[in-house]
């Protein structure tokens, strides 16, 4: 039964990479979203084609790729394959891998959340580059342009959408099953047998 749960969780987690994970906002205005796949490739889906095309911040630029999310995707895909193999053959190695790989994927995504997503860093870097361009002009208002760039940088936000939280929850299921199996294994080895 737990093998079918792990397979279902892996397939659902795999499909959640196609849903929007991040919402990028500038000045509290929805600017773009990124799916799990787009986080890997550095692309984004604009909320409004006009806003996206008029934005000088992202002209011809990608929003940075996330190798940790790519590793997470590969781990989930591999876990789904090993889960299918476990259902067919019941090998102990595939059983362990079908539980350990979703846990590795969960860890990769959590680390990426902790260190921020590349879209935020790329957008802030591009705004910082624009401020350097402004300050290179001999302008009596050069302090104002730097202030403007700092204000734009502080107004850029990357918010996590519900699909990413659902992804974390789904990946936690096989991880908890792995922890449960490890606890049972430790108990079997440490407790003396009570035959009597």
Average residue pLDDT:
81
Overall geometry comes to elongated
Total number of strands = 4
* Helix-strand sequence: HEEHEHHHHHEH
Count of DSSP H/I helices:
8
Trace the largest sheet across and list its strands: 3-2-1-4
What structural class results from the helix and strand content? alpha+beta
Low-confidence stretches: 56-60
Query: What can be said about the biggest beta sheet?
Result: 4 strands, antiparallel
The first-to-last residue Cα distance is: 31 Å
The value of Rg in angstroms is 23 Å
Measured by DSSP, the beta-strand proportion falls in 5-15%
Portion of residues within helices: 55-70%
Task: Give structural notes.
This protein has 196 residues and is of the alpha+beta class. 69% of the residues lie in helices and 11% in strands. The protein contains eight helices and four strands. Strands 3-2-1-4 form a four-stranded antiparallel β-sheet. A hairpin with a 2-residue loop joins strand 1 and strand 2. Helix 1 packs antiparallel against helix 8, helix 4 packs antiparallel against helix 5 and helix 6 packs antiparallel against helix 7. About 3% of the residues have low confidence.
């Amino acid at each position: 039964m737990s093998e079918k749960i792990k397979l279902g969780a892996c397939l659902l987690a795999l499909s959640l990479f196609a849903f929007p994970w991040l919402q990028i906002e500038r000045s509290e205005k929805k600017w773009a979203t990124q799916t799990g796949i787009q986080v890997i490739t550095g692309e984004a889906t604009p909320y409004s084609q006009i806003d996206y095309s008029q934005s000088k911040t992202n002209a011809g630029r990608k929003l940075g790729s996330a190798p940790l999310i790519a590793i997470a995707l590969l781990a989930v895909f591999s876990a789904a394959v090993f889960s299918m193999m476990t259902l067919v053959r019941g090998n102990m190695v595939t059983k362990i891998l079908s539980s350990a790989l979703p846990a590795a994927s969960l860890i990769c995504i959590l680390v990426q959340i902790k260190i921020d997503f590349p879209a935020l860093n790329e957008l802030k870097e591009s705004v910082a580059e624009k401020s350097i361009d402004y300050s290179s002009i001999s302008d009596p208002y050069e302090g104002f342009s730097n202030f403007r760039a700092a204000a734009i940088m502080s107004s850029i936000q990357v918010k996590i959408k519900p699909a990413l939280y659902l992804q974390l929850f789904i990946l936690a299921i096989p991880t908890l099953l792995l922890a449960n199996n490890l606890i049972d294994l430790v108990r079997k080895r440490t407790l003396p047998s009570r035959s009597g």
